[in-house]
Design a protein that fits this description.
Number of domains: 2
Distance between the termini: 70 Å
Organism: Candidatus Aeolococcus gillhamiae
Largest sheet: none
Keywords: DNA-binding, Transcription, Transcription regulation
Protein name: TetR/AcrR family transcriptional regulator
Oligomer: single chain
CATH superfamily of the largest domain: Tetracycline Repressor, domain 2
GO molecular function, one term: DNA-binding transcription factor activity
CATH class of the largest domain: Mainly Alpha
InterPro entries: Homeodomain-like_sf, HTH-type_TetR-like_transc_reg, HTH_TetR, Tet_transcr_reg_TetR-rel_C_sf, Tscrpt_reg_YsiA_C
Amino acid sequence: MSSRPAARPTRRSARTRERIIEAATEVFARRGVHGTRVADIAERAGIAYGLVYHHFRNKEEILTAIFAERWAQYVAYLEEVARMPLSFRERMGRLIHFWVETYRQEPDLMAVMINEITRSYEFLESHDITAVLVAFDPIERIIAQGRDNGEVRADLDAKLATYVVLGVAEMVLTGYVIGSLPRTDQDAYARDEQQLLSLLLDGMSAGSA
């Protein structure tokens, strides 16, 4: 007997699961995890309430799925940039563009990642922190390679600089998410990218402009 017919429910199930994740991302971004009911997610996804529980035990498990799948993609891109045969400035430009463009294209996802995951002590305490810290490794390698190549000052602590880079990125993205850094068009985001690159690589003194 052919196994092909049995594959259809699997594909359908995968599509339904993705619809649940997409709906939850949108609802979490607006109401927060604690302010969201499973019924809200089902309604946004356009599916029966009970079908959500067929794929996930609760809304916290949906949040974990969002983190696991999206964070893995995020880390994979950081690793890809770390392997690119580019200058240090070009690599940093790629990272900054990726962070800003991800918010511009997927503001709900970034809101969830910032508010419900990276800035949530409750989430971090209940999950393996190494899954978050793995994102630091490729950035530290990029900085260390830049230092070894003479593109970065020789006395720079690569690990400390990694925290600085990620801290700046997180705070700017937080500004976007909460609306304290309002941007209305692509040109504004492009200017932010240029200024962030200049600030991180050249500093803030007038002589470095």
